[in-house]
Amino acid sequence: MAQxxxxxxxxxxxxxAESAPPPRRGRGSRPTIGDVAALAKVSKAxxxxxxxxRAGVSPAARRRVRAAMEDLGxxxxxxxxxxxxxxxxxxxxxxxxxxxxxxxxxxxxQFVAGIETGLAPLGYALVLxxxxxxxxxxxxxxxxxxxxxxDGVFLTDLRVDDPRPALVTELGLxxxxxxxxxxxxxxxxxxxxxxxxxxxxxxxxxxxxxxxIGHVCGAEGYVHxxxxxxxxxxxxxxxxxxxxxxxxxDFTGASGARATHQLLDLDRPPTAIVYANDLMAIAGxxxxxxxxxxxxxxxxxxxxxxxxxxxCIAPPLTTVRQDVLTWGNVAAQALAAxxxxxxxxxxxxxxxxxxxxxxxxxxxxxGRQE
Amino acid sequence: MAQxxxxxxxxxxxxxAESAPPPRRGRGSRPTIGDVAALAKVSKAxxxxxxxxRAGVSPAARRRVRAAMEDLGxxxxxxxxxxxxxxxxxxxxxxxxxxxxxxxxxxxxQFVAGIETGLAPLGYALVLxxxxxxxxxxxxxxxxxxxxxxDGVFLTDLRVDDPRPALVTELGLxxxxxxxxxxxxxxxxxxxxxxxxxxxxxxxxxxxxxxxIGHVCGAEGYVHxxxxxxxxxxxxxxxxxxxxxxxxxDFTGASGARATHQLLDLDRPPTAIVYANDLMAIAGxxxxxxxxxxxxxxxxxxxxxxxxxxxCIAPPLTTVRQDVLTWGNVAAQALAAxxxxxxxxxxxxxxxxxxxxxxxxxxxxxGRQE
DNA sequence: CCCTTATTCTAAACCGGTTTGATGAGCTCG
DNA sequence: CGAGCTCATCAAACCGGTTTAGAATAAGGG
Lengths: 370, 370
Hints:
Chains A, B: InterPro entries: HTH_LacI (IPR000843), LacI/GalR-like_sensor (IPR046335), Lambda_DNA-bd_dom_sf (IPR010982), Peripla_BP_I (IPR028082). Two copies of one chain form a homodimer. Helix content of chain A is 40%, strand content 11%.
């Protein structure tokens, strides 16, 4: 056949002026497996075998099919494939977040980016939903499951007694928890360890000489909030340090500032504070500075997340960095493997990094130290 | 044929102990339109008519179908539907971002959340891709188009001479530009106006008495970077203020600090600086403070974005807030409408807000003012 | 009462792939 | 030379919906 132009269906016609309708919106003109089969002079089945790398096709036929594919620029249609396979080749992520809090959160974009880098080479897509509350969250999972849009979902930001592991099991969705495994649930997890970062922070502060180390917690009800608080409390106990009441906050700057004042108003205020995230830590620095305290001379501050701003402020923030991008990547591969029934690769997450900048220093001598 | 049981596939079998495999992973057991039709004693076509609210079904039949749907908990399968309709009921968003910059960016999460709130009630899903560079970006669009995974895509962060409007047109994808319309392209746009926020900022500074107002630009090559710079330059000219050379930066904190030093090193340094985003502005405050300048007494600073941190730092940042959530919402509806061939509703975006906090004040008397 | 027109409903084709069962060609071997 | 195999190939059924063409029934008109 002339190698020139015999592209897809019709279309080619006379490139004359003619009133012939142009190739319908570009769409619809896409070649199908049938076109490829016809051009390669084989059946659709053979083409299918070729694209799926299955045995039973002669080298000659395989070559012809490959050439035809190339010629037509054909790639199998994802939807049709999904229908036959009963697999959508798509994974779902439902994020539940206050819209205001969303843009603070360094986790979300990084994690999504990581998932993407893991999914793209596998030919998977990611469908995303952002929901405001628990009700819509449940509906989102139900819809994803019913519609058959996804093969599996990621579960992030687990709450204590989170209903989602049970929900997805009931819905028959494959799932992967990003965080510590849920006791009593068969949903697999990639074990994120929030504790070790906090322990590193406490140990760092202790070695600087701090004896009273406070903690500003994240929003109540999340397992990572608990994990961080427990790690802090445990580290204090292990080191035989003074107990300081933890103070609740909710990851917002305002709550961080309030919590900071609360700690500094204690009879015996801490000389160092570990915050559950950077936003609260920065707000804490501002709050402390506003009271006439100097950071780090009078008060040491440790954050969590290492947001880009952390080293743009004064003083640059000592903080804990987690490689969320890699989490996403690993999670993507693990969940894809699971939906395909393959055992996931050995899962190892990179360890947290503890970034020492200038918001921590030895505690003041005597002075407020009581 | 016996009307009795011809449900889906086997399964039903003996519920005896037997080694019969349990209903495969919960999945696969989902009812189909055929099951509903059988239960309601109508044809598949009738069921289809009912779910799609089409005329030509008697009230009685309609009721029976509804009941059967309810009974079985059936909802049409999205994939099958997409295949028939040649519509995926899915929209795509490809974000090109340096992973490091991703978590800074208040735009991305908010915009995604906004899209979602617009899409969910329409039964659309969003597939997301995050890519590192221009090459993978193009591939992402090509794959989305070829696979037939999406009906349309959002185009954000337009660059000057951006190849994407032409690309998507060529790929036959419906698209919507989030930003100013591209001259010479037929791709519709929702007109985001970066300029007015900057003009507000300049006018605010001018009314405080500033005569020398500098600008730290965003990354080169983006239309919004240009728009902001042009607006700044135009506002200066309109007010007959002194020209100050704009200084290039790239939205990162480090670049913001560097740019700030560059401006302050001028023979006649500005008394106020307008930054293209908050991150650079905050880094700028830190840089200026490090040189012994006080903000706002010696230098006024205006940011752009109103990130949550903006009012947690000292001094709280005067900045421009755009309602990105609403942009996403509006964009979603507009693009969905377009893919369905409907004319989109009248598009009106909320105006930007100018948030005056404490990083701006009258310029110092005499002193550095020369 | 027959003919026309509307209405309700269904069988069958279709979307674009995958998978299965059957057919036929080419080999080996007794 | 024919039985027995293997291998390549293809037609047809299937996934779960939508859509069309036409049959069956009901209603209206002369």
